[in-house]
Specification:
With 403 residues, the chain is mainly α. The protein contains 13 helices and 2 strands. The longest helix has 33 residues. The radius of gyration is 20 Å and the shape is globular.
């Protein structure tokens, strides 16, 4: 039985597994709030062209950015460098500021890239200015909340000597789901109904935030620069994966409306699979920093055991997602293909996704470590962003087979 040292506390592998399972069950349960909200708001996505294109990457960018924060802070705790201080030149303070900067930068780029891809693919979409305002305003509100939840989670884990690797990714991706979608929909509805004067005010606010971000980038510390230098070039292409997934959902929106229970399933499905992959990559990054895992192309026994744990999580949680999605759809009066098809859809599509996430998460850590980068900056963002496209493809594919 392998022992894991966190601070001055020693965890067995079994304790870690059940910590992860407990966290995943809570995070998936909370994600159903976002899923039910999405299912009940399906008409909004039909009325506002291109909103689904923005929704998918926005949700996962919140989790990706906060995931970088918690993953880096977890490694800092394991290495004994963490302290609860928010001033400049501290791990907590500098990583927090970098996360807020990343939120502004990525929110702007999501809107621009989303508009461009919609034009290229011929997908109906609202104007660019509206897209930027919706993305930045909703992104900042949701991003600040999710980031602060990540900070509080990190401090609580530090105080209680809990392993943040097992808690951080599920917590921030869950609240990324819960916070992003409502703020996105509310901001979009406000923009569509707002008079020109209010749009002008919101536009000025967004411009001020962009200028603030540019100014702050000229005053970054070494830690902040490390996060931005590695985070921006990574998150930009990953956001494109989310946008492409959003286009796939938009093109298949009528089929999704015909089986609207799948809309309820989407949030917990993406959250659960992304969290499982995030736990893996966060643990592997920490174990590489501590010298417990080598960056070899052939996974070690420790990593293979993590794979087994991930499949165990999947078989325990995925059927439950389909079960709850079906009865939630029945409860709110939207269409569902049935209990068994929903459970099979969740399980089969989820196992396919977990398989991809296992190898993607591990080899992301390996290649980033071998190239001299910090795997904490790459693992969680790659997993939570790739889950958009991989998850969308798996769900839509299995819908065609099962339904």
């Amino acid at each position: 039985m392998r022992l894991v040292i966190v601070g001055h506390h020693i965890f067995s592998e079994y304790e870690e597994f059940f910590t992860g399972l407990f966290t995943l069950l809570i995070s998936v349960s909370l994600s159903f709030i976002a899923g039910i909200y999405l299912g009940s708001m399906n008409e909004v996505f039909l009325l506002i062209p291109g909103l689904m294109v923005l929704a998918t990457p926005s949700i996962n960018m919140r989790g990706a950015i906060a995931g970088i924060l918690t993953s880096r802070l977890s490694s800092s705790m394991h290495l004994g460098a963490f302290e609860v201080r928010f001033s400049r030149e501290t791990d907590l303070g500098d990583n927090l500021r970098a996360s807020i900067l990343l939120t502004v930068i990525i929110s702007v780029l999501l809107a621009i890239f989303g508009k461009i891809i919609c034009v290229i693919t011929g997908t109906d979409v609202i104007g660019l200015v509206d897209m930027v305002i919706i993305s930045v305003v909703s992104g900042m509100f949701a991003g600040l909340i999710v980031t602060m939840i990540g900070v509080v989670t990190s401090i609580v884990c530090y105080r209680h000597s809990w392993n943040l690797d097992m808690v951080g990714a599920p917590v921030v991706t869950t609240f990324g789901d819960m916070m992003t979608l409502p703020f996105l929909v509310i901001t979009a509805l406000l923009m569509m109904r707002a008079p020109n004067e209010l749009k002008l005010v919101l536009g000025i606010v967004v411009l001020v935030m962009i200028v603030w971000a540019v100014v702050l980038m000229t005053q970054v510390t070494v830690t902040m620069w490390d996060v931005l230098r590695e985070g921006v070039p990574l998150l930009v292409p990953l956001s494109l994966l989310g946008i492409i997934a959003g286009v796939l959902y938009t093109d298949g929106l009528e089929n999704l409306m015909a089986a609207a229970a799948v809309l309820i399933l989407m949030a917990p499905f993406m959250n659960g699979c992304g969290s499982i992959g995030g736990i893996l990559t966060s643990r592997v990054a920490t174990e590489m920093h501590m010298g417990l895992v080598d960056a070899n192309f052939v996974p070690s026994r420790i990593v293979l055991w993590h794979f087994v744990e991930n499949y165990t999580y999947a078989f325990l949680i995925l059927p439950l997602m389909g079960f709850v999605s079906h009865y939630a759809a029945v409860a709110i009066g939207i269409t569902t293909p049935g209990l068994l098809p929903m459970m099979l859809l969740s399980l089969i599509a989820g196992v396919l996704v977990i398989t991809v996430m296992n190898f993607l998460g591990y080899y992301t850590a390996v290649f980033s470590y071998r190239m001299g980068y910090d795997p904490d900056n790459f693992g969680v963002p790659v997993v939570t962003s790739s889950i958009d496209l991989v998850g969308a493809t798996a769900l839509l594919l299995m819908m065609m087979v099962l339904f």
